[in-house]
Known about the structure:
In chain A, helix 3 (about 20-35) packs across helix 4 (about 35-50). Chain A is built from 5 helices and no strands. Chain A has one domain (about 5-80). The mean pLDDT of chain A is about 95. Chain A starts with a helix and ends with a helix. With about 80 residues, chain A is an all-alpha fold. The relative contact order of chain B is 0.11. The radius of gyration of chain B is 21 Å and the shape is elongated. The interface between A and B is large, with 41 and 53 residues. Zinc ion (ZN) binds near residues 8 and 37 of chain A.
Amino acid sequence: MRIDCQHVWEHISAYIDGEVEAVLRAEIDRHLETCEICSAILDSTRNVVVLVADDRVFELPAGFSRRLHDRLGREMELAGP
Amino acid sequence: MEEPPVILSENARKPGAESEAETIRRILAGERSLFHELFRPCERPVYLLLLTLLKNEAEAEDVAQETAIKAYLNLRNFRGDSQFRTWVLSIARNEGLGRLRKLGTRREESLDAGADDATGDFTPAILTSWREVPAEALERKELGAMLRKAVNGLPEIYRNVVLLRDIEEMDIRETAAALEITEGAVKVRLHRARALLQKALAPQLGAFAPKRKGWFGGRA
Ligand SMILES: [Zn+2]
């Protein structure tokens, strides 16, 4: 079986998560060895996933945690034991 | 001497699961203040999920607080068949949807399973080479802003999957449980979301890659 670029793109997300079964994975790896386009798409997608996950990208507003626990504490008092 | 085999319960195999159950037991037995610590790891995913739903920081914060209160008041109903965080996230989602209704905001698109059949262009941006953008590049505020804009620009059904799976690093099962969709739907949406992000970001990210070293790693 020879797979084409389109076919590789369909599996990029699962490939990144290590969820592609072994035979297909080997096919994709073989394709990647010779296809610069798919390699660049895979690397850029993985890079995007890593960057977006960085804690500095999405942050809680300043004082968020304190305000939440203050209000929670008051409600817990009201609720009683 | 050989040690007797230790029989582990299903829950005990998951790190943290046993202590979570123990903490909940203690809270219900009267050590109420422990709830603050139990809820702490949920704060960020709850807030971010609500922010993607409500698109307003003040509303998201208010509903996050109400979610914490509701989780506390209903703690007795938590069955322990999912992680505590998953349960809290589904409360947050329901509270968020309730708030949307109250605000009279029309949902931007339906969350029906049918949405997964949506035809769209999920072709990635075509590149012939890629220079890695390291995490240190996030010292530049424009990069964070660019990434936020791309995530916020995703259709809601893709955005919340990226948020839980990629940003909060939940597994597919937990993401599916929190959003009340199938694992298959999580995978499809995640794939499309990542393709949309790559397409939106890859052409612009090059500016944040380190300057090319000279040939063979020598000086530029
Ligand atoms: Zn290819």
